[in-house]
């Protein structure tokens, strides 16, 4: 049984990291446990770790010890090879890989980097390693700065080398190609490859190709004078500020890196002013050359500015620094979340690996894991892009989540709030959110304000609402966002990071209203545990539901399970199991269970049942041996809000489970509520849930 895939290249900076990130995302959506392995890594300074490994382990939260993720450092391989111990190199690599193969359902193997001493024989080592591991290979090469003949020739040579050693090549990727040449690249690869080998072409993405200020500081060994919090700023291009300011300003482009001698106060201050001016593009940073720094009075002036980009002092002269900056190759680091997600988004757009991965993984995983569930959510949301409004547009968590969502191009977003305040927040957070793609609306200044107010008046005048009241309410972001959905100007809304649940859902109850046949709005959480996904309801909305309401919550929750690919086995939770318990509370659960059975005889349901009997197979079988739900429940319905809310939080905190939600059920159009203690991940996941709901589940 094949359990691995090898990513190989024949040069540095080919885009291996993109394949690793994209394939890891794909694999984690298809199977339970995926390992990651690098036979050879670069030599690192004392106390430092390999960046490729750190990025994969950190971003995908893999429970894999760092030391198990590689076999050798490059210098160790060179030494053993010089000592005539090449066989020992392969033996250790195989042993460490096989250990991972035993522990994981699939292992993604990333070949070496081709940088530094020893790169001459690295390609042979990759071929031999793949052959001895007995796993297929994906080859990637960069077409940047190459002629067609050079690029295709190197790919064909790599293919022949692997095939000559009886290594299966299953796909080939031509990376960093001009957009107009993508089809030509695939057609030319197809000329020398068999039909059963997949071919892909990926364009050059400037935001991935250009270095960040952090990389530039490291490469130039610069001293940070200002803006240390914004070193993740991406450079768009760079230019020397040597001419007079009035002429230099005309050369600025978006995300320009300004390189100028440290005594050119006019260029420095002019560039900083241009950065905050709406008439000029943003700059990413300023490099001061010649070991010169501005005079104290200038430094004091800069320090008092409201917005500062990174300002770096370096010892070298302007000419040398400019050449060195041009030679810096950008990398992806574990903390570069936006860059990672842009990389994965690019991979998913141009590389269709799902069918290939399904062929590689020739076994059936049991159940649905959190990674598979999350992967499925992203895929579902991408099927039909929806427009989500976020009323709390000035909240840091909302802005960071919006930036991540836009990076993977999964939804269209409207932020509500003052445009200038949001721009300042984005600058402060160092977020490169493309404001041409994100809609920002100040409700009180919106072109639709009067129309929305009049609509609200017509909808609520029978409740004593007059036009002045409607205008006042429409200034509120929750009312405005909900009206956007009602009028068809947005598909869904996510709020609650800075507002109460009632503030979020009251407008929806007033004029979005519930679906036909539904009288109770309720909620579910998708609880992503280590080895399964359970659904908890209702943990956010209804304090003390009646038996009829509890039954309706159960049916709505079961429908949500079906919509998200979960076959519900329903546990109606109480303090007793079966017929033994007595009392008003357990009787209410028993009555609700009977109502569900009568209305939906197709559902698998057990109740009343205790939590341990619902989820623990041994306890379940001992208490209810004939039940098809006991010990296997994945939809747990709590009898009241007190129990449900405390239980989901206890499970989340004690097990480290990811709680996605709450997702509201029963409304005509999706409005979802966040908790005021929500994280960026909570916002991110809830927006994706809302987008899927908006598809009409």
UniProtKB/TrEMBL annotation:
The keyword Disulfide bond does not apply. The keyword Cytoplasm applies. Keywords: Acyltransferase, Cytoplasm, Transferase. Pathway: Metabolic intermediate biosynthesis; acetyl-CoA biosynthesis; acetyl-CoA from acetate: step 2/2. One of its GO terms (molecular function) is phosphate acetyltransferase activity. It catalyses: acetyl-CoA + phosphate = acetyl phosphate + CoA. Residues 373-691 form the Phosphate acetyl/butaryl transferase domain. It is found in: Cytoplasm. Residues 215-325 form the DRTGG domain. Its EC number is 2.3.1.8. It comes from the Bacteria. The N-terminal region seems to be important for proper quaternary structure. The C-terminal region contains the substrate-binding site. In the N-terminal section; belongs to the CobB/CobQ family. Involved in acetate metabolism. Homohexamer. This is Phosphate acetyltransferase. It comes from Autumnicola tepida. The lineage of its organism: Bacteria, Pseudomonadati, Bacteroidota, Flavobacteriia, Flavobacteriales.
